[in-house]
Amino acid sequence: MFVTPPGPECRFVRGLYGPRGKLVEPPPLPRESASVNRATFAARFLVLSAVFAMAAAAGCDRSGQADRAVFDSGYAALEAGQWDQAVKDFSRYLRMDPDSPNRGEVYYYRGQALVHLKRPDEAKADFLRAIGAGVHEPVDQYARIALGNLYYEEANDVEAIKQYAAVLKNPHSEVPVPLVLLRTGVALQRLGKWDTGKRYLEYLVAHYPKTAVAGQAARYLQADAFSVQTGAFSSRTTAATQARQVQQAGFAAQLAPVSGNGRPLTAVQVGRARTYAEASVLANRLRSAGFDTLIVP
Q1: CATH H-level superfamily of 226-296
Q2: Where are the alpha helices (DSSP H) in 191-275?
Q3: pTM for the full model?
Q4: What gap in Å lies between CA 184 and CA 225, rounded to an integer?
């Protein structure tokens, strides 16, 4: 747990939550000493309350107890999954004390609530504000990861890699390095940088073999192209029927063994694309022909 001691500025606990443009240089692999902290959100909330109590005892009040009450309310709403209330409370706090030395962390928390509310553009703006406000580690790195994740989900892999690279240069011990490695590797693959992406996935499997994402990385390591999957069936006969339908629509389809929820399935897959963008074009054509699509490595 990383707590800023109460003092003249009365900082909060440094709590955690956990192809466009030119491709940036691949980020460096992390130090082997990087680790994943599994502290619970609830524990961090208790420490936050303790820090406020210490600050009050030290006579550090800033704008009085009003600021603390508003922040406490927003943080409790965030913990409870009351996203709208969290946004309201954190916004109110920022209006009450716009120059607060803690504003970066508050922007980060508000950004997390906005992500849950499916307001990604506003969330991005808050994560950028958190980084620009000069928050301390590891909050700044978590803000970059959150920003990178939003870009990643949009398939804006160039921007995602930029944010992940800033973290991997010198990852804090609290940062979920395996997840950052996985998404960096996959983002590079989606840009057609298969060999470079492989480095990050291999590092993840070798250094974090017991993590949940290591299995995902192992699957991506077996691929060197993307296909568009139109269905996966427990019955090979059913899969063959759909494959004929796909072929009749003018696409070359093939059957491939896959697994779903631990069960063997037969998938119908179309094409081999070097980049995710190329696969997306094919997926759009298949959807226009009336098929469901899923891009898979």
Answers
A1: Sporulation related repeat (3.30.70.1070)
A2: 194-207, 212-221, 236-248
A3: 0.74
A4: 16
